[in-house]
């Protein structure tokens, strides 16, 4: 047997994707264990709770990164296959706030939700959840005391916004929100990848000639960063 040829035929990208998938599963178990640990720590041990919350936050960030890498691999870095179904936005928001409850409670940052119970939309629930969750995780890191998660129908579009009362988006992050794949570099780090991934998810949602968009700005009612995704 020619071992050289056998080695050269290995699809390294597939091996890497399988490894990432395995790491993601391990991280999910780790995150669940961290949540269980937090519940078992006496309330009066503030420092211990703070450390556990920080570990939970970092593990969640790693998990988000791995999910993004897997999705981009499966999309072959060009198009993102989506599975569209009807979803109630209030349920989507509840999933996001629930997965971030430990860290938001520890940081004393309230997540305010503003959405009609009967508002539903046809979208890929898993992908939109990942998009919104990543924005909320970022807002939790920089927000001071409040995050507002809201959704409404406007001009035949679903408009979801995430606002915080932090210092707002820096200029370089605004620029990264419009970075094309051909201009994207790994050195841009997680922030660049996260924004590119968000734009990819939004753009994958289409209706007739319309496609979804994301917009970053500063100000809003809370005075900090404002992330808006519009889906047709």
From TrEMBL:
UniProt domain Histidine kinase: residue ranges: 18-232
Reactions performed catalytically: ATP + protein L-histidine = ADP + protein N-phospho-L-histidine
Domain of life: Bacteria
Broad class of enzyme this protein falls into: transferase
GO molecular function annotations of the record: kinase activity
InterPro entries: HATPase_C_sf, HATPase_dom, His_kinase_dom, Histidine_kinase_KdpD, Sig_transdc_His_kin-like_C
Matching PROSITE patterns: HIS_KIN (PS50109)
Known EC number: 2.7.13.3
UniProt KW keywords: Kinase, Transferase
The keyword Transferase is annotated on this UniProt entry: yes
Pfam families associated with the record: HATPase_c
Name recorded for this polypeptide: histidine kinase
């Amino acid at each position: 047997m020619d071992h050289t040829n056998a080695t050269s035929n290995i699809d390294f990208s597939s091996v890497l994707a399988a490894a990432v998938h395995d790491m993601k599963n391990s991280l999910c178990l780790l995150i669940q264990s961290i949540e269980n640990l937090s519940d078992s720590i006496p309330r009066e041990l503030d420092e211990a709770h703070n450390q556990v919350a920080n570990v939970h936050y970092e593990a969640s960030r790693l998990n988000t990164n791995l999910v993004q890498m897997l999705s981009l691999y499966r999309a072959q870095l060009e198009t993102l296959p989506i599975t569209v179904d009807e979803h109630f936005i209030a349920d989507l928001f509840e999933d996001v706030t629930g997965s971030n409850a430990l860290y938001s409670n520890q940081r004393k940052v309230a997540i305010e939700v503003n959405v009609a119970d009967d508002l539903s939309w046809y979208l890929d629930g898993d992908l939109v959840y990942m998009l919104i969750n990543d924005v909320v995780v970022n807002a939790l890191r920089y927000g001071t005391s409040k995050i507002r998660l809201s959704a409404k129908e406007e001009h035949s579009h679903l408009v979801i916004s995430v606002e915080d009362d932090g210092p707002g988006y820096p200029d370089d992050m605004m620029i990264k929100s419009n970075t094309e794949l051909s201009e994207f570099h790994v050195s841009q780090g997680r922030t660049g990848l996260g924004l590119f991934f968000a734009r990819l998810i939004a753009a994958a949602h289409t209706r007739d000639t319309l496609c979804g968009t994301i917009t970053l700005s500063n100000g809003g009612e809370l005075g900090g960063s404002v992330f808006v995704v519009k889906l047709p």
